[in-house]
Design a protein that fits this description.
By secondary structure, the chain is an alpha/beta fold. Helices cover 27% and strands 17% of the residues. It has five helices and five strands; from the N terminus they run αβαβαβαββα.
Length: 124
């Protein structure tokens, strides 16, 4: 959907034929989760299993908008932000699962000492 606005979402909804029970697998949030996109009618009509917000870490524009995040949560839509998730992988054979590369493959600078090698606290 790119940077479409809520007005453009409404226009598309007027032209789409969505039956009851229509559900999108994955919806990429419009305009990085901006409050000018991602309207409630759009989100309700598509009823996505997942919403992916493509936003940068500490976005200077405040994406995703707290208002939009509240909307996702109020509608019970599970969502992830690429700023925290990294690359997102969705598979049609596991449609209820979304994998985040940042949690699957930590970069070397996120290395943590194995538990057995950590110093133990002294008991006194």
């Amino acid at each position: 959907t790119g940077d479409i606005t809520t007005a453009e979402e409404a226009h598309l909804l007027g032209r789409l034929t969505l039956g009851s029970g229509t559900q999108a697998g994955v919806l990429f949030a419009g305009h990085h989760g901006s409050k000018t996109s991602n309207g409630e009618p759009w989100l309700r009509a598509l009823s996505p299993r997942w919403v992916v917000v493509q936003a940068g870490l500490r976005s200077r524009y405040g994406h995703p908008s707290p208002e939009v995040v509240r909307r996702f949560e109020a509608l019970g839509l599970p969502w992830v932000n690429t700023a925290h998730c990294g690359a997102v992988r969705w598979r049609s054979n596991a449609p209820h699962t979304l994998d985040c590369s940042r949690q699957e493959q930590l970069r070397y600078w996120y290395w943590q000492m194995p538990a057995q090698a950590r110093p133990q606290a002294e008991e006194g």
